[in-house]
Specification:
Length: 335
């Protein structure tokens, strides 16, 4: 059987684009060994983390190698199985890559999806890694409480939009930072934020945040780092929690780490807690979190948006567009 794939053809220096990938077709043997499954991909996830995956910078996963299929979380259908826990026809989620088919042995990341609960694409977003990240960061690391003020960067994105809604469900005051006036309106009118700011057009972002949160920010959900975070740290309250979820605003960490304002004094004098989050460290807590997310969804308390681009060949361009902020919601590829 022929299998279309998108592979990393050369390593980017900074943000990856279509020029760093190439398409190829390989022959795939669907004769399975015991314990293996064969998956036909339906949706591929496009994520900010992919920039780190294709870089040689130290990261939580090894870098994708040249001529290797681009790593991606996917949803697909099992077309054959020799694993006792998975059957032909099951819908599954896992790291199956930018390709039509994947043959693998299920690892702890692979899980079955109930297609009757919600559209299966939601397993890559609100009812998948985006929702899990938002839920676990706010509840396990941030330990948010009713009445606190939470600030979220990339507030209209796949993770940020869910985080904002969860914080509101928990009774918090929620402020969002996003990159366009349309997204500001979306945050407030669709996702329920109390306030949102366009960081690109706000003349003095630090001052604008201070006016919206005169008593300070208790929990900072930081998807960006960089200059955006620099405007937030002076506004953090005593004993605030700064949760590093992404570094989307930093184009490259090589050859030299980019420098910004020193945050040490804020950390010291305000007794801040600063923590990093990587989803794969929290897989044991995923089932309970997914159950709660599904409950909120079925009750109509959780909304989400998706950008779905047709065609495997368009995955590299969709990734480049993601870093430009062109998406509103979770970016997916329909194979």
């Amino acid at each position: 059987m022929q299998n279309r794939q998108i592979v990393l053809s050369n390593r980017p220096d900074g943000i990856p684009g279509p020029e760093h990938f190439s398409a190829k077709t390989t022959e795939l043997d669907l004769t399975l060994a015991e314990g293996q499954i064969a998956v036909k991909n339906i949706y591929l996830s496009i994520d900010p983390a992919m920039r780190g995956w294709v870089s040689l910078e130290p990261n939580y996963l090894p870098p994708v190698q040249i001529d290797e299929v681009m790593r991606s979380i996917c949803v697909g259908e099992i077309v054959d199985s020799k694993h006792p826990d998975y059957a032909k026809g099951d819908t599954v989620y896992g790291i199956f890559g930018w390709q039509e088919y994947c043959v693998c042995e299920p690892n702890p990341m692979v899980r079955k999806i109930n297609p009757e609960l919600a559209p299966i694409s939601s397993a890559l977003g609100a009812l998948g890694p985006n929702g899990l990240t938002a839920y676990l960061v706010l509840n396990e690391l941030g330990k948010i409480e009713a009445g606190e003020t939470v600030l979220i960067s990339t507030a209209a994105g796949g993770v940020g939009s869910i985080a904002g809604q969860i914080a509101k469900i928990k009774g918090c005051k929620v402020i969002g930072l996003t990159g366009s006036d349309d997204k500001v309106e979306m945050c407030v009118n669709e996702f329920g934020y109390d306030h949102a700011l366009n960081y690109k057009t706000t003349e003095n972002l630090e001052k604008a945040i201070a006016e919206l949160a005169p008593e300070g920010i208790n929990v900072f959900f930081d998807n960006t780092s960089g200059a955006i975070a620099d405007a937030v740290y002076p506004n953090l309250a005593m004993n605030a929690r700064a949760l590093q979820v992404g570094t989307a605003a930093v184009e490259s960490w090589e050859p030299e780490t980019p420098l910004g304002p020193r945050r040490d004094r804020h950390i010291l004098t305000k007794r801040l807690t600063v923590m990093g989050f990587v989803l794969i460290d929290h897989t044991a807590k995923a089932p309970a979190a997914l159950q709660q997310l599904a409950q909120w969804y079925t009750q109509g308390e959780l909304k989400y948006r998706e950008n779905i681009t047709e065609g495997l060949e368009n995955a590299p361009q969709a990734l480049a567009d993601l870093y430009k902020g062109a998406n509103t919601g979770k970016q997916l590829i329909k194979v």
